[in-house]
Write a structure and sequence with these properties.
Number of helices: 5
Structural class: alpha+beta
Strand content: 15-25%
Length: about 325
Amino acid sequence: MLERRQNRFSRPRLGAEDSSASPDVRTPERETAPAAAPQRNGGNNGGGGSKTAVTVLVIIALLLAGVLAYIWYSKQRLVDELDAEKQELTNQMKELQADYRGLTSDYASINAQLDSSREEVNQLIERIQKTEATNRAAIRKYEKELGTLRSIMKSYIVQIDSLNTANKKLRADLSDTRKDLSESQRKNEELTQTVGDLSDKVAAGSVIKARGIRLEGQRKNGKKTDRAGQTVFLLTSLSLIENDLAPKGPMMVYAIVRNEAGDVLTNPDQPTSFVFDGVETLASAGREVDYEGAEIDLSIYLTNLGKLAKGPYSVEVFTEKYRLGGAEVLLR
């Protein structure tokens, strides 16, 4: 009984010793120590993240600097190219300016056009020099104007060459015309001489002669004038000399008026011709008279002349058988 009680009372002490020596009581103290370790490791991980962020920012800054440098280089290169293009355009305009300066002609109308185009080239050069090379729209516009001015200059060259060729041909034709005129004058002199020779062979008693042959210009009002610009009619006046032995009755008297070049002046509305010595001859005008042997005055008008040139004019008067004579007038 006493042992059982002692054992009963001793169990609590044994239980207290066992509980103080029990591993379960000390375990919370051992778990507390390792809990601080993760906090120190966590502090080391935060420092590594900051370094990574700085590195990324540096790389981005370097990339941006590279991009900006490339953009600046590209822009500078483009500006240099545009400056070179503007200089080339200016050089081409100056070459065109020199070409226009060396282009001349003998024609007043073309010279006036050339002066106008030269001024356009000068003004275009000034505008190009004042325009920024980066103004692409303006530069393209000037390039088109350059092309237009070149085309205009080519047209001037073609016109000048064409006119020069035509002028050479006209000179050649004029030379041929002068030769033909000289030949015509020679033939006319031969014909006049022939007429004179034939007239000499005719018996003096049968020849109808004239005197006082005159050629004069007249205004519209019938007054005499020596001004070519005022002349509306050319009047041939003469008197048939009295001759009782000459053939009597109606007869035609013809006037042949020639200009300085030897061309016969005619009335386009009333062309007149007659046969003289077997040859049909063109006349300027004719008039029928009734000759009865007595002296008779007559006038022959040449109308519808148009505008007359200044210079000498001559007239020869004929019947169908005789040359009556001639006269001249100078219209100023």
